[in-house]
Amino acid sequence: MLTQAPPENTAARLAVDIRRKVIEMSGSPNGVHIGGSMSIADLLAVLYGEVLRQPAGEGPPGEGDYLILSKGQASAALYAALAATGVIPEAECATYAEEDSRLGGHPMKRLPGVEFSTGALGHGLSLGLGVALAGRRYGHDGRAFVILGDGELQEGSNWEAAMAASHLGADNLTAIVDRNGWQISGRTEDCMSLEPLADKWASFGWRVRTIDGHDHDHIRQALGGPAEPGRPTAVIARTIKARGVPGLHDTKKSHAATLDEDARRLALAVLDGEPV
């Protein structure tokens, strides 16, 4: 059961804040991709809380680290992270998916902390590779992190980028696969098998780490350590879709869900570790 985090643990507190805001945004009549948003909450919490240098939206362009959310349908989690870290006002989360809101169903570049509009699946890794190569070309020491969905890996453009990244020695590029096992059509292994996924990345010349995507120690060790010279890094984060949300936990129906007030109250109670 998920519980409130101790005050000294920044990433743990961020993870709770991100999940809480995603649940609150799920009241939108347009629905939230709550499954994929909740499965990457811990990844975002460690990235924004401990790993990324220069919080998103701060500092001169071209400095610090880049984060690209290739699986743009999980935008609610990104907005929650930006709000929890003060990049955008927390109150703005209430405008999710409304007309003229900056918080669209997929992230848009006009929002602070969003470098690329994403959500057309299969493009994020190529964008991340471009950022990594540009940084190296201009002498920047920042890194590019790309969060990909596992079903998204069925797009061939990902593997073109993976092949190029290895060939070009883009060791400042890290691909993070949200391996929650689901895509919109069902289980990934039923739709088009991805396994052995770690071996596939390794065969393209990447350094591969397979982790528990909800274990903050695993995440920080995989993302915070030094790069291997000449090799990009692939982190396969095994996660649970809609983790902790009653009725949606590890199910297909969590893709685009609108939770009514009672469902949101129940989900928040579970998040807070209260009896339900």
From TrEMBL:
Keywords: Thiamine pyrophosphate. Its cofactor is thiamine diphosphate. InterPro entries: THDP-binding, Transketolase_N. Residues 17-263 form the Transketolase N-terminal domain. SUPFAM superfamilies: Thiamin diphosphate-binding fold (THDP-binding). PANTHER family: TRANSKETOLASE N-TERMINAL SECTION-RELATED. It comes from Streptomyces chattanoogensis. GO terms for molecular function: magnesium ion binding. This is Transketolase. It comes from the Bacteria. Belongs to the transketolase family.
